[in-house]
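New to this. Explain the following:
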Amino acid sequence: MYVNLAKINSTSLGFAGLSESAAFRPVQYAGVTSGSDPIAVFDTGDPTTDTTVLGVNSSGAGTAVNETFSSGSLYTLVLAGSVDNLTNPPIVLSFTDDNTLPPTGFVEFRVVDASIWLKDNIHRDWMCISKPATSGHPQISALTYQSIGPGYVQVPFNSGNPQITVYVTPHGDQNLHLITYSSTQNNEQINTLVIYDTPSGTGYSGTLLQFTDEN
């Protein structure tokens, strides 16, 4: 993956994978120039000869994709869409990060919906984040494809194991858990979760992709 012609991952980024910096706990960030930056993704990372998945290669093939980054700001980028889906082709989703720690005794979550299958078949998702074995009321409702919902949601820190359980349900039916995801947390931890599809695109993944943004 290239941002403003600079490669930001030194090894190949596989499906549902994290770049080297994002795989750290907490994540580390790759520095790029501020302003409107072109973004390009290639099959194996060669901007001259390889097939363009997203953006334009050095020969001019492809469609330009640009994202605007402010100086001093932190961002999470999610590659979504599918090369096999003409209606939902590959895209890059950019979200501004706020790594200000929540109050002690709390953790924070935000959720990106990158699932084409749920968009086409379920349409909307509700998200409930709670201690294990309870469903409660959804902290995130009407989550739609390519969105990040209301942003960061605070929930009480729980020292048990698993400490937090996340339930993804269809819109209006909290009793049907499409995804149940358990996560061990540190006090004041900040998380980004991603809903995504299986590699074949014929269904949604039964788990969530998690970034530990801070702590």
The radius of gyration is 18 Å. DSSP finds one helix and 15 strands in the chain.
